[in-house]
Write a structure and sequence with these properties.
seven-stranded mixed sheet, nine-stranded mixed sheet, alpha/beta, 26 helices, 715 residues, 3 domains, Alpha-Beta Plaits
C-alpha cells in the first residue's frame, strides 16, 4: 500500500471518529438519550435498590384501600373530617416521635363559613403534639402580575434561615389554613417535578418565593433540625451543604432520590385502632406499641388509588408520593447519596470508545473479530456502570453505548461499501424466506446484518399442520397430493408475507414461520397471531378451491410461541438455511401438536399472549406441561376464532370473564364452582374436557402436590 493510500485511510479513520463524536455530542446536548438513560437508571434502581431497607428511624403511615374500608363506618367517605387526624397526632406524640409529616394539604377551611370544630381539633392537636409538620405548595401563576402577598408571620415562622439561595422562584402559594400553620412545628412544600418521561426521580430541597423567602421541601423540613445545628446552609446547583452533611445535586439544583424497596410502612387503620385501645385502657395487647416509634420520623400519606397521590417512580409504576419524601429523609440521615458523573467524564469515555471502535473495524482484517471488540467493550462498560451503581455511583450509559454503536456502524458501513459484497450476500440468503417488501427493507439496512453470524433473539414462532394428512395422502394419487399442498402452501405463504413474517421451511404438510427477524419489530407477537387468524379464515377459500377439484377437505392446527431462540444462517458451506433453533422452536411445535387434543385450530403460549401490544381477546385454555418439558405453560386461543368454530353467540366479554373465573376455580381445586360455571357455558370440546376433569377430581381428589397443571404425555 502506497503512502498516499495510508494517508487516505488515516484521514478516513479520523473523519469517522469525528463524525461519531459530533453526532453523539449533538444528540446528547438536545437530550436525545434522556428517556433511554432514565430507563436504564430505573433498571439499575430495580436491580440494586429493591432489597435495600429504608432508615430504621423513618416510618410511613399509609392511608390505603384497607384503611378507607375499615374506617368508613367511623369516618365516612374520603375526605375524612379533620378531627380524624387528632388520633394519629396523639398516638405519635404519646410515642415520643421526632416528627409527623402530612403529605396532605389543609389549605382551606373544611366547610364554608370559617374554621369549624373539626379544623379546630386538627389545629389543637398539631399545637399540643408539637410534632406536626404540615404541607404547602409553591406555584407558578403566569396570569398574575407580580406575586401574591404571603403572610409575614408565616414567612417569619417557616422560612429557612442562614441560606444563600439562587434557584427557582415562585409567585403563588397554598399554605395551611389560618391557625394551623401557627400551630405547626414546621411547614414544607410538596412540589416534585417529573422527568421528561413522566417518572418522578428528583426533587428540590429548597425553593424561593418572590425572591424574599426560601422554604424547605417537606423532607428538608423534617431533617434540618437534625443536621443543620444552627449553621449556615450553602447551596449551589451541584451540592447543598447543611452542617457537616454535603448533599449532591444533579447540576440543575435537583436532588436525585435513592429509593428503597424495603419500607417501614404501616396502614393508618392500625394507628386508629391502637389509639382507641389506649383511650379505652386496653394497653396490654396493643395493635401497635408506641414505644416502637420513639424518636422516629413519621410521614403520613395515601396509596389508595382513588386519592390520586400515586406516581410512577424509578422503583415502581405506582407509588404514593409520600414515599419520595421518605426516601429523601432516609438518604440524608444515612448519607446514602447517588453521585452522578459529570459531562467531562462522559465525553472522555465517548471519545476513547469511539476511537477504539473505529480502529477495530478498519484495521483488523477479520470483520467479525473487529466488530466483536466494540461489542465486548459495550458489555464490559454496561457491567461497570451497573457495578458502580451498587456503590451509588451513576455513570451515563446511553451516550457511551451510542458512541460505540454508531462508530462501529460508520466503520462497518464504510468497509462493507468498499468491499461491495454485503448486499449480494444478504439478498441471496433471504430472497426465498421473506416477502419482496421485507427483503427490500433488509437490503436497505444490510449493514446491520451478517449472513454468517448467529444471535440470540426473542421471536414469535408459528407452526401449522394439516390434520390427518397422512390418511389423506394415502387415499389420493401423488399428483393430487402435490397439487393440494401447492394450493394450500401458496395461500398460507401469501398470508405470512402479508404480515411481514419469515417463512422458515415446509416440513411435509407443515409450515414453520417466525416474526421479529430479519427486521426487528416490537409487535412480532401481534403479527404472528393476526397471521394465524387470517390463515384459519382463509382455509374456507382453500377448501372451496380443493372442492372444485374434487380434492379432500382439510383442517389445520396452528401453534405459536414467543421466546428466546438462536437465529442465524445454519448449515454447511454448500447448503445454508436462514433459520431459528432452540427450545422456543420446540415449544411452538409441541403447542401446535396438541391443538387436535383440544379440538382448537389455534393455540398461543402465555409468552405470546403477554407480548401482544394490541388487544386480541383470548380465552384461557389450560395450563399444561408438554411432553419432554418440565416448565408448565398457560395456553390461550383467540376468542373470535373460538366462537366462530363452535357457533357460540355468548357476548365476547362475558365469555372471556366466565372462562377465566371457571379456570381459576379449577386451579384452586374448587371443583364445584368450576363445574357450575363450565356447565353454564356453551357446549364444546374444550369446556367438555374441563368439565370431565372437574367431575373426575370431585370423585377422586388429586394429591396435595397437584399444581393445577395438565401433563401431556404425547406430542
Amino acid at each position: 500500500m502506497s503512502p498516499t493510500q495510508n494517508q487516505r485511510k488515516t484521514l478516513i479513520i479520523i473523519g469517522l471518529i469525528l463524525i461519531s463524536l459530533a453526532l453523539t455530542a449533538l444528540l446528547n446536548h438536545f437530550n436525545f438519550f434522556s428517556r433511554l438513560e432514565l430507563a436504564s437508571f430505573d433498571h439499575r434502581v430495580s436491580m440494586f435498590r429493591s432489597d435495600k431497607y429504608i432508615h430504621e428511624d423513618v416510618v410511613l403511615v399509609n392511608i390505603d384501600e384497607e384503611t378507607l374500608q375499615q374506617m368508613s363506618n367511623e369516618l365516612g367517605r374520603w375526605p375524612w373530617p379533620r378531627s380524624a387526624y387528632r388520633d394519629i397526632l396523639d398516638f405519635f406524640a404519646l410515642a415520643g416521635a421526632e416528627a409527623l409529616a402530612f403529605d396532605i394539604l389543609f389549605v382551606e377551611q373544611e366547610a364554608a363559613g370559617g374554621v369549624n370544630a373539626n379544623d379546630q381539633q386538627l389545629i389543637a392537636a398539631s399545637r399540643d403534639s408539637a410534632i406536626a409538620v404540615h404541607a404547602m405548595q409553591l406555584l407558578e401563576n403566569a396570569q398574575m402580575d407580580g406575586a401574591k402577598p404571603m403572610p409575614t408571620d408565616f414567612i417569619r415562622q417557616h422560612q429557612v434561615d442562614n441560606i444563600d439561595f439562587a434557584g427557582k422562584n415562585y409567585n403563588d402559594f397554598l399554605i395551611p389554613l389560618e391557625g394551623l400553620y401557627q400551630a405547626s412545628r414546621a411547614v414544607g412544600y410538596l412540589e416534585i417535578e417529573p422527568d421528561r418521561d413522566g417518572v418522578f426521580r428528583r426533587l428540590r430541597l429548597f425553593n424561593q418565593y418572590d425572591r424574599q423567602a426560601v422554604f424547605p421541601a417537606i423532607s428538608s423540613a423534617l431533617v434540618l433540625p437534625l443536621i443543620a445545628d444552627g449553621g449556615e446552609i450553602v447551596y449551589d446547583a451541584n451540592a447543598t451543604t447543611v452542617g457537616d452533611t454535603s448533599i449532591p445535586l444533579d447540576g440543575n439544583g435537583h436532588y436525585l432520590m435513592n429509593p428503597y424497596g424495603g419500607l417501614n410502612e404501616i396502614p393508618a387503620h392500625q394507628v386508629f385502632a391502637a389509639m382507641q385501645q389506649i383511650r379505652a385502657g386496653h394497653s396490654d395487647d396493643l395493635v401497635l406499641d408506641p414505644a416502637d416509634f420513639r424518636n422516629k420520623i413519621v410521614l403520613l400519606g395515601a396509596s389508595a388509588i382513588g386519592l390520586l397521590d400515586v406516581k410512577p417512580t424509578a422503583i415502581s409504576n405506582k407509588e404514593p408520593g409520600v414515599r419520595m419524601h421518605a426516601y429523601t429523609v432516609s438518604n440524608i440521615l444515612e448519607q446514602d447519596f447517588l453521585v452522578a458523573a459529570g459531562n467531562s467524564l462522559t465525553y472522555s469515555l465517548v471519545t476513547l470508545f469511539s476511537i477504539v471502535s473505529v480502529l477495530s473495524i478498519m484495521l483488523i482484517p477479520r470483520l467479525i473479530i473487529g466488530a466483536l471488540i466494540p461489542l465486548v467493550i459495550a458489555v464490559v462498560y454496561i457491567f461497570i456502570t451497573y457495578s458502580l451503581f451498587a456503590s451509588n455511583q451513576v455513570l451515563d450509559l446511553m451516550p457511551v453505548l451510542f458512541a460505540i454503536a454508531f462508530s462501529l456502524l460508520l466503520a462497518f458501513s464504510y468497509r462493507s461499501y468498499t468491499e461491495k459484497h454485503g448486499k449480494q450476500r444478504i439478498r441471496a440468503m433471504l430472497s426465498q424466506y421473506v416477502s419482496p417488501s421485507v427483503l427490500t427493507n433488509v437490503i436497505d439496512n444490510y449493514d446491520t446484518l451478517s449472513a454468517e453470524v448467529g444471535s440470540n433473539e426473542t421471536l414469535s414462532i408459528l407452526f401449522s399442520d394439516i390434520r390427518g394428512f397422512t390418511e389423506i395422502s394415502e387415499t389420493q394419487a401423488a399428483p393430487k397430493v402435490v397439487d393440494m399442498l401447492n394450493i394450500y402452501f401458496s395461500q398460507m405463504t401469501d398470508i405470512i408475507f402479508e404480515h411481514d413474517g419469515t417463512l422458515d421451511k415446509f416440513i411435509g404438510d407443515a409450515i414453520m414461520a417466525f416474526w421479529g427477524a430479519p427486521i426487528k419489530t416490537d409487535n412480532h407477537a401481534d403479527q404472528a397471531v393476526q397471521a394465524a387468524i387470517m390463515m384459519r379464515q382463509q382455509l374456507a377459500a382453500v377448501n372451496q378451491v380443493l372442492a372444485a377439484k374434487d380434492y379432500a377437505q382439510i383442517d389445520i392446527g396452528i401453534g405459536i410461541h414467543t421466546g428466546k431462540v438462536v437465529l442465524g444462517n445454519i448449515g454447511s458451506a454448500k447448503k445454508l438455511d436462514y433459520t431459528v433453533i432452540g427450545d422456543g422452536v420446540n415449544l411452538a411445535s409441541r403447542i401446535e401438536g396438541i391443538t387436535k387434543q383440544y379440538k382448537l385450530s389455534i393455540l398461543i403460549s402465555e409468552d405470546t399472549h403477554a407480548a401482544l401490544t394490541t388487544a386480541v381477546p383470548c380465552i384461557v385454555v389450560d395450563v399444561v406441561r408438554l411432553k419432554g418439558k418440565q416448565q408448565p405453560i398457560r395456553l390461550y386461543t383467540p376468542a373470535e376464532v373460538f366462537r366462530a368454530e363452535n357457533n357460540i353467540t355468548m357476548p365476547l366479554a362475558e365469555l372471556i370473564k366466565s372462562t377465566e373465573q371457571a379456570f381459576d376455580h379449577y386451579q384452586d381445586r374448587q371443583w364445584d364452582k368450576a363445574l357450575n360455571l363450565y356447565q353454564q357455558l356453551p357446549q364444546c370440546e374444550l369446556f367438555n374436557t374441563l368439565t370431565d376433569r372437574c367431575v373426575s377430581f370431585t370423585d377422586d381428589e388429586p394429591n396435595e402436590d397437584w399444581d393445577g397443571v395438565y401433563t401431556h404425555t404425547s406430542k
